[in-house]
Amino acid sequence: MKVTYKAAAKINLMLDILTRLDNGYHSLFMIMQSVGLYDTVSVETACGADITLTCSDNRLPCDSSNIAYKAALAFFDATGAENCGIKIDIDKKIPFAAGMAGGSADGAAVISALDEIFDTKLTLREKCAIGLKVGADVPFCLTGGTCLAQNVGDVLSPLPDLADCYIVLAKPERGVSTKEAFAAFDKNDRIRHLDTCGMLYAASQGDFNGICKRAKNVFEQLIEVPERVPIKATMNRYSAVTACMSGSGPTVYGIFDDESKAIACSQSLSEIVKEVFVTKPVRLGVEKV
Ligand code: ATP
């Protein structure tokens, strides 16, 4: 049996770090949004008790360090389903180490696929509990849409859908390690925190302009991305409603209310960065193909 799921990238409409927890993790305030840029993940039953993994991007590991592989192990561990051999194939379109949760999206797709193959009928909450063992963004990738994410990202509250718009993603070449980004926060005691209350109110009302006005990310105070200034300047020149970095970077997104401006902006951005995508907000994190 073979099933295929597409797994959506995410952006952070807001990301603030509230505090460092005693266990070394961080308490976060994030407004998450799924966007229509997808990896395609196929899972197929095979012979033997191995998990084998192939990936279209040869820069990513195909062994047990791949997040998709870890998600499969976590699934078998939690459900007790017997692994009689599976093959995972990832067609990678979401840039990695980009602040778009590409690895977590693949993990979410594997959990959904295995739930279907083994007919384990997991609830969303059960899938999220398995996903959390693999990565803090996996529960959101399973949930999708527009959500407030708190604690390490695992406490999720659904919000009204973001209004229809166009989201341009510009990914500078350098990758950013999320671990190093949090280490930079720990060393800095001069963070200017964000208007989280105002953002939550705007998001709960589905107030598009209120959300865009408050779209901010504390990692912009911590992570240097040289291309960020020209990317934002270009987005502003093409009348982006807002422009902000996603996750721990380096991807910068611009939100547009007009498709032609978004496309013209993406063409201009191609002169600054190689990877540029025009997307839209989507409601689902994982979707059967
Ligand atoms: P986040 O926004 O959740 O912090 P990210 O977009 O910054 O995530 P990912 O793309 O999820 O980062 O990948 C982080 C690291 O995990 C990469 O550097 C990569 O080596 C490793 N990795 C392992 N498996 C995968 C996978 N299936 N897809 C992407 N990266 C993976």
Descriptive account of the structure:
The protein is of the alpha+beta class and 289 residues long. The protein has helices at 67-79, 102-117, 124-132, 138-143, 178-186, 196-204, 208-214, 228-237, 259-269; strands at 2-20, 26-45, 51-55, 86-91, 146-151, 155-158, 166-171, 216-217, 242-245, 252-256, 275-279, 286-288. The radius of gyration is 19 Å and the shape is globular. The chain is 31% helix and 29% strand. The model has no long low-confidence stretch (mean pLDDT 96). The strands form two sheets. Strands 1, 2, 3, 4, 5, 6, 8 and 12 form an eight-stranded mixed beta sheet that branches. A four-stranded antiparallel beta sheet has the order 9-10-7-11, with helices on one face. Adenosine-5'-triphosphate (ATP) binds at residues 60-61, 66-68, 90, 96-104, 106, 137, 175, 178, 247-248.
Quick take:
The protein is of the alpha+beta class and 289 residues long.
Please give a handful of descriptors for the protein shown:
289 residues, alpha+beta, 9 helices, 12 strands, binds adenosine-5'-triphosphate
